[in-house]
Automatic annotation (TrEMBL):
Residues 23-277 form the EAL domain. This is Diguanylate cyclase (GGDEF) domain-containing protein.
Length: 279
């Protein structure tokens, strides 16, 4: 028993250092990726629930790895969060989005706002509003063309810095949305005080819509509560015609999901900007 105990200890020890090495490796790789400009932005449309008209585009980071292909956020955002690289990564995303808006504008198509994801760590760094303001200034873009999505947990852990950042963005004219609504513990009064423009209801609620009358009633309650305090409701993860019809029936303001379109590269967005109505 003693030897196996010792063995376990060694195993545990090696495992820990392996984990550390792997974390440091991934950190170094991500840092290099940012330096070598391997980060690209994909865009997923959001549409008016009633008319299917394009209302906004969500910017979603991808890592175009020279040997691994296009990597999804789940493979690198957590490392970025842990190591603090989310700060320079977020800054790159914002600048790439503004450059892209300039490019679309040059193509002569009417623009829609682009929504960027900002994590708790980013908002608490206290530099997000300045980064956005600088990018807008550099590109000559109006602040209402950038929207900001903050996860519900970030609004709950509300620090003085985070509140000040949100207030600055709000004053600048960028609309604020609570991301993954329903997965955290924010109160509607708190969201109202923070002057959030709307909520993006977590896709788990959309997925459950067809499970039964109670799930439908739950979504209906969210919509009516949000509307009561003048907040817009966006449904995430709309994957079927049935879900879309139910959400339209509930008076959900905007829709986003694979049924409308998956996230696509910028080159595919031009057609959407021209076409305007996606259903
Ligand atoms: P999110 O902000 O909740 O983004 C929505 C995610 O749901 C995206 O995953 C999108 O591809 C996926 N999705 C969209 N429609 C559907 C659908 O109909 N069904 C299903 N099952 N999924 C759908 P993605 O692109 O893998 O991004 C994952 C998360 O990574 C994002 O979740 C966001 O939290 C984070 N992320 C992505 N880009 C950035 C970024 O630039 N900065 C920060 N801080 N986080 C980012
Ligand atoms: Ca989001
Ligand atoms: Ca979300
Ligand atoms: Ca999320």
């Amino acid at each position: 028993a003693k030897t196996s105990g010792k063995g376990n200890y060694r195993f545990f020890h090696e495992n820990l250092s392996e984990q550390l090495v792997s974390k440091l490796t991934r950190q170094a790789q991500l840092k290099q990726a940012l330096e070598q400009d391997e980060l690209v932005v994909y865009y997923q449309p959001r549409v008016c629930g009633r008319t299917g008209e394009l209302t906004s585009l969500e910017a979603l980071a991808r890592w175009r790895h020279p040997s691994c292909g296009v990597m999804q956020p789940d493979d690198f955002i957590p490392v970025a969060e842990e190591t603090g690289l989310i700060i320079p990564l977020g800054e790159q995303v914002i600048n790439k989005v503004c450059d892209q808006l300039v490019q679309w504008r040059a193509e002569g198509v009417p623009l829609v706002p682009v929504s960027v994801n900002v994590s708790a760590r980013q908002i608490n760094s206290g530099s997000v509003s300045a980064v956005i303001a600088a990018a807008l200034e550099r590109c000559g873009i109006a602040p209402d063309l950038i929207e900001v999505e903050i996860t519900e947990s970030a609004t709950v852990g509300e620090s003085v810095v985070a509140s000040a950042e949100l207030a600055t963005l709000q004053t600048m004219g960028s609309r604020l949305y609570v991301d993954d609504f329903g997965t955290g513990y924010s109160s509607l009064s708190q969201l109202r005080r923070l002057d959030m423009h709307g909520i993006k209801v977590d896709r788990s609620f959309t997925a459950q819509l067809t499970d039964g009358p109670q799930d439908l009633a739950l979504f209906r309650a969210i919509v009516s509560m949000a509307h009561a305090i003048d907040m817009q409701v966006v449904a995430e993860g709309v994957e079927s015609a049935e879900q879309l019809a139910l959400l339209q029936g509930l008076g959900c303001d905007e829709m986003q999901g694979y049924y409308i379109s998956p996230p696509v590269p910028a080159s595919d967005v031009l057609l959407m900007l021209q076409k305007r109505h996606l259903y």
